[in-house]
Design brief:
Strand content: 35-45%
Helix content: 10-25%
Largest sheet: 5 strands, antiparallel
Order of helices and strands: HHHEEEEEEEEEE
Number of helices: 3
Number of strands: 10
Radius of gyration: 16 Å
Distance between the termini: 35 Å
Length: about 160
């Protein structure tokens, strides 16, 4: 019973992330679906507690998983209530593909919604500005990033809360 309740909780948690998980776990779904691979990855680390008092450990949540090198030293700044600016250092990582891109996921637990910024910004640009859904403005947001290069996907990373 406890296991079923935890699976239900994780399923509800991951619903707004499903489009990104389908991309982020594409290389880890050999024996099942991307969502089942995501469940396996998040079951023991991202959700703690017992029914009915589960808690999400956002910095342990994994939305994508692969071996693409990660950009480091990312800074976030809320420029207006609905505009988020990210900047980062390349840290010597060679980014040579014409279609490498940054992907930013903004999650609002209160609304149980995500908004995503993807494409148009290369990792080598070292910054991006994202105008997210104005319904999320003024609410606590959880921010994740990942980088995509050709058919490779980087690990998602929890950047923090704003």
């Amino acid at each position: 019973m406890e296991s079923r309740q935890k699976l239900r909780f994780i399923n509800e948690l991951l619903v707004p992330f499903q489009p990104y998980v389908s991309i982020g776990f594409i290389h880890h779904a050999q024996d099942g679906t991307e969502i089942s691979a995501t469940f396996s990855e998040n079951y023991h680390k991202a959700v703690v507690g017992t029914h009915p008092n589960y808690t999400v450990v956002y910095h342990e949540c994994v939305i994508s998983k692969c071996n693409l090198p990660m950009i480091e030293e990312i800074d976030m700044e809320l420029q207006t209530p609905d505009i988020l600016k990210l900047s980062w250092l390349e840290n010597g990582i060679k980014i040579t593909s014409f279609d490498d891109q940054a992907m930013l996921i903004v999650y609002c637990p209160e609304l149980h919604r995500t908004d995503v910024f993807s494409g148009g910004v290369k990792c080598s640009d070292a910054q991006c500005t994202f105008k997210f859904n104005p319904k999320m403005a003024g609410k606590r947001l959880k921010i994740y990033d990942q980088f995509i290069k050709q058919e490779k996907i980087g690990n998602s990373r929890y950047l923090g809360s704003i």
